[in-house]
Backbone:
């Protein structure tokens, strides 16, 4: 099996940590990546980065329950990190398009037996936990990519927000998404799905945008259990505890439940739309 | 007594909440201020705000232990909220300069008996708790204002960070500040200060940048105490608990200990520097 996930959002929102938490492996390097910051140039006004958004691809082969997963994680260091972010969405859109183009070119060859699917199957967009609503850059980016890949918005570092604040924040985000006509990933409901399947799908999708917390560190809770989480002087937040955050639901969506559907929707709908538009120009 | 505090940083960093917590009064309105967002204009690329940074002044008269404090809080809604923030520091610098100009003009009149001091005595800059380091906009803004007002950087919503992360983050911020030659407020040590005073000053200032948490809500702790704080499913963070955050230290600096020194340094050093430069042009 294989999966290509793109991950974007401002620096320091726990994106690397969350990917590592999802797959329980050190796939990306969290924390301050010096090389991603090296385009900062000191000017007379202070710091002016060259407004560079890089695209980085990290490939890993994972095995779980005897099943191999060839995972490709595409990250976007530099996004949102400049004083002027007007063009920061462009390298991201270019990357998505280039992967479509590669597939288009491969599928039009005579020998097509071994096409490698490098298209983006899922786009995780990380929203800063301000508690207010989407900001201008969030909306700009999401509108640029929502018709090219399966968009899954997440609320980053949601341990910053109380349960009440998460509820209100999600309402405002969903209102913004509706107002801006932004399409987020929606699994198909099949007529022959049983009630249990429909209910399971509903329970996952009603959490969107997913309020996530990530951690690969093991910590001890007050009642002595060892869990993946973050330890504060006032308590321990548990990543795998559904009372604490939506991590489990996001993992069910991405890996357990809708992995094939993410790829099918990319291949049958999003790619076909891109191909039709490109060939009819 | 009187005090003029300017507060700046990206939207949703808990600035309004922190001011209300410092003075235990609903001085500013926290949360999503619709009127601050009304300059968002929907363009072909998605949302393009008119890049407007507004300057808002809120005045209140507070009384504590029979002492009256005439407080003026100057906020900067819109700062950092656009896709292109290249000029977002300008309205802030203009405001500081205008207040210097007003004083200069008042002090050169014949009748100077009732000059109202509207100069900025303290500038609280809120840093996003990414855990990484200062970003380009932080550095740009701080370099523009650090020689015009007493700069006090704070780490916003520090309950996002574990104790270890706060320690590392503070080191990186202080390194950035040193590298960029940014001056932060530093109280004078007087030769005749006793050891206790010097030690008290040191204990406060070594916390800079202050890792703050704000809340005016009262919540109940696990052991039954009622405190100002934030209640999460995994625990209660207490604003006035020095094991949880640096709030007490910041309040000691601003209100209890260095209020007069902040004003004196503004009047005797920062204003005089501005006046000398202006008159010699
Ligand atoms: N509060 C909180 N901090 C987190 C979470 N996930 C990661 N962090 C911390 O945030 C910092 C940045 O994480 P990183 O994964 O490098 O963020 P990235 O720049 O978006 O890839 C690190 O100090 C992490 O330990 C989370 O869910 N909650
Ligand atoms: N985690 C956390 N949230 C906070 C803190 N202070 C305020 N908030 C929440 O952050 C949101 C924005 O606060 P607000 O004061 O309006 O931020 P402002 O836009 O910077 O003035 C509100 O939901 C607050 O309850 C804090 O210290 N920690």
Residues:
């Amino acid at each position: 099996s294989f999966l290509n996930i793109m991950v974007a959002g401002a620096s320091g929102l726990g994106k690397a940590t969350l990917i590592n938490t999802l797959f329980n492996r050190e796939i990306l390097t969290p924390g301050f990546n010096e090389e991603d910051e090296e385009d900062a140039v000191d000017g007379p006004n202070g710091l002016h980065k060259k407004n560079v958004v890089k695209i980085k691809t990290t490939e890993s082969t994972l095995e779980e329950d005897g099943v191999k997963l060839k995972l490709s994680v595409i990250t976007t260091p530099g996004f949102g990190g400049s004083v002027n972010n007007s063009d920061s969405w462009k390298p991201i859109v270019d990357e998505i398009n280039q992967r479509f183009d590669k597939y288009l070119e491969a599928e039009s060859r005579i020998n097509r037996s071994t096409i490698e699917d490098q298209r983006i199957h899922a786009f995780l967009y990380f929203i800063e936990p301000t508690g207010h609503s989407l900001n201008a850059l969030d909306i700009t980016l999401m509108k640029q990519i929502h018709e090219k890949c399966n968009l899954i918005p997440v609320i980053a570092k949601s341990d910053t927000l109380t349960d009440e604040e998460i509820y209100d924040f999600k309402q405002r985000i969903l209102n913004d998404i509706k107002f801006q006509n932004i399409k987020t990933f929606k699994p198909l409901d099949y007529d022959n799905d049983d009630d249990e399947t429909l209910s399971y799908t509903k329970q996952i999708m009603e959490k969107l945008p997913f309020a996530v917390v990530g951690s690969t560190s093991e910590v001890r809770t007050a009642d002595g259990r060892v869990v993946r989480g973050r330890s504060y002087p006032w308590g321990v937040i548990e990543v795998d505890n559904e009372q604490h955050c939506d991590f489990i639901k996001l993992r069910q969506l991405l890996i357990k439940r809708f992995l094939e559907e993410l790829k099918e929707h990319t291949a049958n709908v999003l790619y076909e739309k891109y191909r039709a538009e490109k060939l009819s120009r």
The two ends of chain A are 34 Å apart (CA to CA).
